## 1
Amino acid sequence: MSAKVAVLVFPGTNSETETVRICLDVGLDARAVRWSYAENLPSYDAYVLPGGFAYEDRIRAGAIPAHDPMMDAVIEGAQRGKLVLGICNGAQILLEAGLVPGTGPVRKPTAAFTRNAPVPRFVCTHVHVKLAVEPSRCAITAALEREALIPAWAAHGEGRLAASDEHLAEIAAGGHLAFVYAHADGTVDERAVPNGSALGCAGLTNKAGNVLAIMPHPERDAWDFNHPDLRSGTNVLSPSGGAMLFASFAEALKDV
Amino acid sequence: MANPSFPVIGVSDGDLRSAAERSGLTLRVDELRRIAERLGRDPSRVEVRAFDAQWSEHCSYKSSRHLLGHLPTGGPNVMQGPGEDAGILHVGEWNGERYGVVIAHESHNHPSQVVPFEGAATGVGGIVRDVLCMGAEVIAVADALRLGRMERADSHQRYVARSVVNGIAAYGNAIGVPNLAGDVCFDEGFDENCLVNVVALGLVRERDVIHSCAPPNAEGWEIVLVGKATDASGFGGAAFSSVRLDEGDEEANRGAVQVPDPFLKNVIMRASYRVFEYLRERKLAVGFKDLGAGGIMGCSAELCGSGGFGAVVDLDRVSAAIQGMRPEVLAVGETQERLCWVLPPEVTPAVLRIYNEEFSLPEIARGAGAVAIGTVTREKRYVLLHGGESVMDVPIELLVGAIRDELPVPVMPEPAPVDPQRRWIAGERAVGELFERILSHRDVCSREALYREYDGVVRGTTVLPRGYADGGAIAPIPGSPLGVALSVDGNPRYGRLDARRAAELAVVESVRNVAAVGARPLGLTDCLNFGDPRNPEHYAELVAAIGGLAVAARELGMAYVSGNVSLYNESKNGNAVPASPIVACVGALADVAKIVTLALKRSGSALYFIGEAQNAIGGSVLAEVLGVRGAPLPDIAYARVRGELESLARAIDAGLVLAAHDISDGGLATAIAEMAFAAATQLGRTVGVRLDDPRAWTGGAAGNLEALFGEAGGFVVEVADTDAFDRSCAGIPFVRVIGTTIAQPVIAVGAERFDLARLHEAWIRPLAEVYP
């Protein structure tokens, strides 16, 4: 019996289909749950918040959906140890909900993914993210190798981690910095960061390590056909590349 | 009729003309008289607005329909030809189902010139609805942009260039449809009239296609309006598209532009997919159509009229954003994000529930939702009610039937034969700094800075995003290796010289681009962007271009399944855009595993040129950079073009091609440089090229600069197994080795060496400054 995973759909979400698809392909029992039919959310074992422009990014990306009633179930579940993965807009929502880095009270964010810098423009570009903590630090990454390098697409206008110096220091010291941007060969420097993100941050986890917020989209580089020049297998439909993060997510849910 | 009338009968021509002008009507005096004569009375104000929209060129194609009849529109790949909101091409079978790719292609030129962000955004919004209403899931968008000179940072042209891209990005990104293909040209001919052409693709199983017409048993069915609350935006939009831009009327023009709401559209699309599912379960044939030109009136009249019915629509049932809107604004205004269903009454409640409750449209945007507004009638009249009274009651075929306003077709001279051998550049010259000048030319330089603002990978189906190959490609059917490729092309430098050949070259280029990734070209769409057809020069260009489109498609076995005509692309002082026939080609791949990118893969491979160099460099970037005048466009020998396509397809199918790139703007040397750049930036590999002296591979057919930078077309192909490749191309005379790939980051041409990093910098910089 595989774990039941809810992929949340807010008004304006746009990445639910491929997110459900990669979850299914790594063996999870995933389905999209829409805002208007979300009463049974608490019955799910884990939650994925996919990309998009929930509530039109009004005020700030993620600010309004963090207060959607669906998030009550997600916050309660996260506090009880359920796994929560937020991608792109989903990551922004998790920060606005205060679940990651989770160093302050719920719905009182201590950090945000905000406007790209130096140019505040939407950018769609291929990136790699590198695991910057011990794999076991976060349950969702526990089955990855140390310093795992995951291909993904950055596609956002608000992906730059911003926080006060004090909170940035807390993020670094508390092992919250789960993923940093890297080059294809694994080296890390400023040129690999597409959005001016503080600490080169591409992903954050919470204290307990059961919530992961990642800005780039591993699910858009998750099958062999997504990277035709770098195919790993013989079946063009095989999950590969970014699918490794979802495989690790599924591994963590194996015994749920 | 309590509704005030628009006096026509007994009014002098002069007075009628000034009354029409005062009311902002584009109907001519003779057209107003024809309406009054057919009605046997003066039209009401609502009626006159309705005819103004329906009889505009935008809706009626009245001065181009007879010309478009020359285009081939049928063939084995055609599932749905022109005539509905979009065409459909048969792309392949999967799990026993025949799948179609829906394609629509339109212009949104006038709005984008006046308010570029909103104009371009609503262009995407409109084309997406055209595809959606065929019952399809929207799987990709593309755009062809023709922009003015953007060199000056404070110019209006640069403002337009940036805002158009912002608008396309803001809309396409939010609805979650990948931007897969497109092109952009910068030319002074677009300083006062930019062109924004948009293409959208959808996926549909053949048996699930929904038509934009009321089905044969639709008498008594309900007309259901879905989407945004109707407001006063976009009033007069269809007519606005069918006149010249006059700067003095900028304020009035702005009022005609619609307001985009991609957030609402995102939800409407998803709700509509759910309705499709519901209808499929019940195997119901219904009608579904996008509201575009002519608003509620235009859409409901065409839906019912094309099914052989009439309609009664009650404007009081329309959700209005503002109290007290005049009936003609409610009826004809072009508020965005609306669609219209024709449904059996027993199904309506379930459909309303999906939109209004399951997807809670009224909570997403004020006044949004789905509501039944009228009935399909047996009597073939179009009736509008407002305040309980009839404000419009006309024969429906008079409103939506074909009207003609045909100008005599000029006798076109046969194009002068091109002598491909005649030289326009004296002698042989060193390449020198010319390479960098061509790579940094505004029509050659990298487009990445522009398209990186577009989400090209949402939906997770993208195989080739922009920049990876000549065409974009996706694998749209979950669990299937079937692929769809797309390219959009046209060249204003060619259009300025020779509209007919420019049209032919646009077709050839789009087909080549799709073939270069290994796809089988399936079919075409066209968008014809021209000046005022009443100017004989522009009309002759339009006629010539349509002739060229027809010839090229027939020669290559292609058909047009959809298209659009945008005339009046000129300002008041008569400056028209260069003739701009823009063509999109859709291709199919049986297995995306066989796809080919343009990045060079390794050193030690052979580089082949499939094609023939010519001295005819007219319209090329080379000619412009060198200041060569008078040269003709290259000769198109279709037998050779077909041979090029066939030999490439065979080699790709046999797995013999490591990389392939079509030769276009900037010629063969530019194509090779782009292949080396892609190796570095996309694969992290250093691959350079040693190119043999052109004299060795042209056999004297062309000078060295013409061979390197001329735009006669063809392909550059990277091959590892030359013996197998030679066998695959045996007997084809225009396939030859021109060089090898090397491990050094240089391109060497004969004795000259060019540093790849320097070339790359020249290629990247120009647009990076415009789109930082």
## 2
Amino acid sequence: MAASKKWLPYLLVSPYLLFVVVFVLFPVLFCFFLTFNKWNIIAPMHFIGIENYRHLFNDKLFWLAIYNTLKFLLLHIPLQLIVSLLLAELLNKHIKAKSFFRASFFMPVIVSGVVVTILWQQLLGVDSGIINRLLTSIGLAKVGWLVNPDIAIYSIAIMATWKNIGLYVILFLVGLQTVPPQYYEAAKLEGATRWQQFYHITLPMINPTIFMVVILSTIGGFSLFIEPYILTGGGPMNQTLSAVLYIYKQAFQYYNMGYSATLGFFYALIIMTVVILQKKFIEKEE
Amino acid sequence: MKKRFSVGRILMYAVLLIAAISFIYPFIWMIGASLAPMNEIGTMNLFPSHPTFSNFKTMLAKIPITRSLFNSLFVALSTTFLVLITASTVGYALAKMKFRGRQFIFYVIVFTMSLPFQITLIPNYITMINLHFVDTFLALIIPFSVSAFAILMFRQAFQGLPQALIDAARLDGCNELGIIFRILWPNIKPTIITVAILVFIGSWNEVLWPLIVIRNENLMTMPQLVTLFAVGGRADAQLGVKIAAAVLLALPVMIAFLFFQKYFIQSMASTGLKD
């Protein structure tokens, strides 16, 4: 009985241990191993040393994909923060139909990215798209949302923001509710304006939520895939080619498994570095 | 302080209303467009003057969409079931048992949560080939059957329960599995619902992985099938048909959301509230 008690906890955690070995530990090591090999799955692997890494550093398309992903993040993160914080701040007041507003903001969050992308493909069409019709009806020029190489990635960023805002509104609402109302009452007595209250009380108090939103949308943004895959296939002129889409194409269109693994490995290092830097920055701020 | 109808308040409602419309209008337009005959799509009209199911009929004739609906349901339900079981046993051991390596396992779980999936994507595909999982549902279920996030949620829920509950059950001769699923489960219903919703939605909406491991059209999940339909030439640039596919994909989740709105919102909010 005593002996069986000893291994019982290990038996209970065994599903996780098995999972970690098969789907985390082995893949990470195997990925690292693959980065030194050339392999198209069918023919035998052969060792090529650091050739994949050399290729990676000279691969203009990969760096363009990284650059595109960064451009995406540069619009996505601030837009996400500002709009969701604004809406959460409004919802946090005593207003009617609060649950209606909350639910409507949340609708795109739960629906598949595939649906959202197909939907926005119609909204963003040059001639028949609703947004351009709206623009021309008030006398503005049509915009080539997805066909103009200079703005296509930003159109995708706006779409991705639209999809996720509801989630961040909820996170901010939770954050805003942790601010003690006495703070605002005291500030009001001191004659602080709405803006001063927001800047000096709300913002510092919800700092943790802000950083959480930044980190979550960074990680989400770095895995940008299905939107450009459906909308543009990475075009026009590779301007919406995201890093994950490029990794996918290298593996499953060109069957460069070794090289694709190298890209994945290197890209994961970039993501982890960015997230760690963000966390460091947060701790410093706090 | 009775200023119910100040300019600020009206402005506030205006902003909220515009936001709400911008989130809902596209979905309503989508449903309208799916019922519209070809020549009416792309107008600003919300509802077509001559509604028809022809878009849906064309789509049903072209792709096995009903089949994919059941595939998705089966995959998402199996995944959810397995995650609930594994997260319970692992979470229970971490929360309520003392053993060597417990802290270490906890750190490993936290670490694996922050590991980007891009690093394991290709090797996991190779593993699927070697296990002969490619083109079977196992490829869609097994790699998602254990979730670090779910384990942490269950660990936290179990930690909040009194030890006396467990001791009393042990005295009654209950074994550990009985303790977890018969004694403790009824006490952590909110956690079970939260995890179930998150895992189900995650599995239902996953596209990248099915695109990699499933090639047989009869085994495809719904989002995968709709994606390939949308990017491939088979919709013949017929907008209405494409939109009809999107509507069918969105509808189950939207209906579930309307009924269980509160749970959905709470669950999703908890994704940001780790530890």
## 3
Amino acid sequence: MSPLLLTVIQAVLVLGLAPLTVGLVRWFKARLQGRQGAVPWLPYVALATMLRREMVISESTSWVFRLVPFVVCATGVFLVLILPLVSTGSALSAYSHFMLVAGVLALGSVFLVLGGLDSASAFGGMGSSREMTIASLVEPAVFAVFAAFAVASGHATIDGMVQTGGAALLVTPALLFSLIALVLIALAENARYPVDNPATHLELTMVHEAMVLEYSGPYLAMVEYASALRLTVFLLLLANFTVPTSFLFHPSAWQTGATAAVLVGTFLKLLLGSFLLALLETSIVKMRFYRMQEYLSLAFVIALAGLLLTLFL
Amino acid sequence: MIATLAVLEPLFAVVFLFASVLAMPTFRVKSLLRLYACSSIALALLIFSFAVRDASGHLYPLALGTLFVKGLVIPALLTNAIRRSGASERLQSSLRAAPSLFVTVAALLVTALLIQHLPFAASAASAHVLYLSIAVAFAGILMMVLRRDVFSQMVGFLFIENGIAAFSLATIVVIPVAIEVGIFSIVLLAVSMMALLSHKVQELYGTSDTASLRELTD
């Protein structure tokens, strides 16, 4: 199996499943809260509807506002192409250096912030300010987490870090700290509880929703799709750090039996990941914004502990 | 199945440490006791995997005793005592969550540097467990120093005890069963006494904050 084909398979699979992941999280959450819940594939319908709708764009916006959805969407697609989500050793895996990944993640956040600011609405500015505060606190933790994985695996690319999969936890158990910190970071990066509430438009709480408030039609569809991609990427990445690599494609080891295992495995990872996320969001409350620094410094210190233990043990 | 448990040994060791580190930014009584139970269960599994690896039958009763006494009885006893005393579920600390965790991580680093100069480090049965035991005891001491309320100080003491138990596992490995039984009964007795004492403190002062015990009253 050629690495290029693996990249194509991964892209098709993850790009296709991203809206379903969001739908699954919402469905699980509704069920856990005793509601009926919409069908998990509703986001596909919602995206299709948004794509057909007319756009209403404020006259005070500049070209930045129109550029933002493309950049945000492109960063999501780029991450899907380079990261080891469904296969390791794919064609673009050499680009998955953790500095680059952190940079691309930040690029998406920064452009979303610019989009929020450009419309000059009060909500947009508020959301942007909050997002930048969170992003600047998340960044050191991201580096500390991936540095620990890099030290443990001897690879600077995330592809190399994932190549041993969950077995790395047995060889270097201190990575458990880094993994927990990564979960905390993933919640912040994806604007989920306890950092942000993805289901509300209350001005006091929203961060991500405040920035995209001015978008409509196809642009909104792109931004929403990008956030779905980001969630799927993080869920799969976290799963790949914890389970053995037999659920991942690899160019050198290719069997027909393995194909089914990988496909079913990927679906199960998303299913389990979205269930756990929904469970977490049902059982905890959103944090006050001014307590955010505490939450994110906890994430950073736990990541630092993981890095120190990996270095010294 | 049992062989798998022995493979998971490093993971148990880290969970043992992780629970005590995570206890530092935990300010709810129930979560704190849950973390203590988690740490004790990890210690029991660690002893169990040592027993499987070395094929030493003496360690099995110790693992079971740790699981039962420290993993179940003591957390249950303390939960009950706290509920009866009617104290606040919110614990008091001199430091906020993030700084106290930072201090703990700094202590982990200091322990890692110290361990390289210990005279008996080379002869220890397991260097990892030796490090973890000292780190957990250190975290327990920090918890006793940084926390202001009686219950956290009790749990801090129990974490120190867990660290010492792991220390003996790393250095001596097998201890006569009679001594182990003695240690378990002392820990149980100490916990019941401390629970009683904290109940009295709560009754007399209406608070579990130790700061109020420092002042002389009529």
## 4
Amino acid sequence: MVKVLLWGTLRSAADGQAEVEVAARTFKELLDELVARYPGLEPQIRRGVSLALDGKIYREAWFTEIGPDSEVVLMPYMTGG
Amino acid sequence: MALDSYQKRTFKQVGTRPNRPDGVDKVTGRAMYGADATAPGMLHAKVLRSPHAHARIVSIDTAAAEALPGVKAVVTAADFGVPEDAFLRDVQDHCMAREKALYDGHAVAAVAATTLAAAKAALKLIKVQYEVLPHVTDADEAMKPGAPVVQAGRAYENVPAGMSENVTHHCEFGHGDLDAGFAKADHIIERHFKTAATHQGYIEPNACLASVTSDGKAELWVCTQGQFFYRTLCAAILGMEASQLRVTASEIGGGFGGKTMVYMEPVALALSRKAGRPVKLVLTRDEVFRATGPTVSSSMDVKIGMTKDGRITAGQAVLRYSGGAFPNTTVDMGAQAAFAAYDLDAVRTFGWNVMTNRPKESAYRAPGAPLSIYGVESVVDELCQHFGLDPLKVRLLNAATEGTKSSYGPTFPAIGLKATLEAALAHPHYSAPLGTNQGRGVSCGFWFNFGGNTCVSLSVNTDGTVGVTEGNPDIGGSRASISLMAAEELGIPYEKIRTIVADTSSLGYNDVTDGSRVTFAVGLATIKAARDAIRKMCSRAAKIWGIDEEAVEWVDGAAVPAGPNAGKFPPMTLAEIAAVSAETGGPISGHYEVNADGAGVSFGVHLCDIEVDPETGASKVLRYTVFQDAGKAVHPSYVEGQMQGGAVQGIGWALNEEYIYGADGKLQNPGFLDYRIPVSSDLPMIDTVILEIPNPGHPYGVRGVGETGIVPPLAATANAVSRAVGVRMTELPMSPPKLLKALEAKG
């Protein structure tokens, strides 16, 4: 199981939890599992999210492997100028 | 060869300052910018724009315009479909109003004619019947119940029920117990801030030449930060297949994020398709201001608690950003970045996006971050003043470092903030004396940076030279930096390499030039493409020598036997291998594609000395120094240029630049005479101190540098002015009338 930290406005879609546990080995599995368990997260995940794995931020990287002790943080999709 | 992450090494070419490869073309006027493209039979286009801030389009009669001699096509929203995808629909609607004109300057029709004069004359013959609607241009006003609704039904699911329909997005970040944190403080300051929308202020107006043929193939030559993204958007809006639209990026006279979005390119393509002839569309400066860019405007409340010895106990920010007449999420970035420089037990940021009757926001260097950090750094500065503490030492005391849980969630890996602060503290600028009416401001800055989709091809020519093909317009010296990295990896002189920017049919997809990504991501792909070519050259040498490929390695631009057991052969240089490539297996090239991650966040610290004339309210920057962690500076002159450019644009944002709307909702200053950007004579030389803390996510330790530089100057300048005049300035820009008003209120 992987612990995923959600930002504040997503928590209402995850039963008020700041951190949820999902079974996932990769980012793709993690996002799919989040949507399956918490459908309220789907609109944001569809609009785009980034994921921080042990402090390193990824924008799109479905097959990035997640260790069971990794720190995983869901973040809005990064944009820049 | 699989050295993806940073490897410490002694550089031979990276870190030097060779002449820029585009220098001669640019100083001789030979460089081809957006408006320089021409084609046989080309038509000239002009756009009719709404004179109203908010109006329903009842009807558009184009008959008279179409009948005018010389006019070959007129288009309105009726010539486009209605995309299902909301993002694409907004992009299209911004290019051409569909049911409502949503801001002063919103395009409602366009004409292509044989001459510019005919096109202009035709615009006057288009009859648009408007039903003028109430408008709102201020974010705070737009949030109020009963405010005119810019667009109905656009709120995301995260907006609580009962709010104004103009509120489209809400976000919240942070951790810890705010109440407990504020309870520990010896003093709490809460301030309200407002910042005006600004424009990216690029010198070259948006321009393109579109040519659609009767068989459905199309070409677009355009001034852009991302030809591939422009292709994606234009093809989708025009209903074309991507392969049939080739987009070529011109040289670019500035973009800063503003040219990451289409504004009139789909319109030019639609006109060309209708007329069956090439169409050139060049915006005037007035149009650039009214219908491209700008940044978000903001209204913010920042509250910070501090102990008397300078420890921040809690921080909170409420940000209300308006990105114009369409939903956007730039406030996400501002809310995440606001407190990123600090190691806090209790921090919370709340963000709201609000629609107003203004043009659709476009990115501008580190979008969203300069504003929120201006608010936070202003309050930190005021707390330092309250306790009589040194503002740099307070920042050092509270600075985020490796292991800090960031205000936006992740735990920081190794970061360079403390080193940057220490460099500023030790710099002579910080201890230089100040005179009367002078103040010194300090601010930290932060930006995320990212990598993104990148594709590079590298070809080894038979004469021993090398061509590098990349897909990002050279907006900040990337051809030089890419050439340097290729030269370093291949071990041949910089002058032997020519890097070109490919069109969309010549290379795989590349993301827009944004996010400070190009030197990082394209550099990474170039290094890997060079390694791919090196592997092939080692293979050719092995065949010539009759030994195993694994027994050959690449040293200083030549293949050499890997060890004494590999055999005794003299080094075979790149030129020697290339010269016989036809005989040894054919052309040699390297290629690499990646969606790069690991760009590494970036921090900067700025020092600003300002003198304020108490009689006129005019501010003069006396001295300015930028300290920034750049990772490895590939071409230090360009890195310094990015740092200086960011600082100058931030100073302009702080002191003078603003979109000024009248009560009628019309933009009152759409020109550089009334929209005052800093020019060389306004400013001293911006001094720079580059800190080279290697980014572990790049083979050479490269970190993006293009955006962080614009983040600290708003607060550094505001803190300097506030200290100079003894009044806390909470509204940007701090133009002379506002400063005089503040001085008069102080008495």
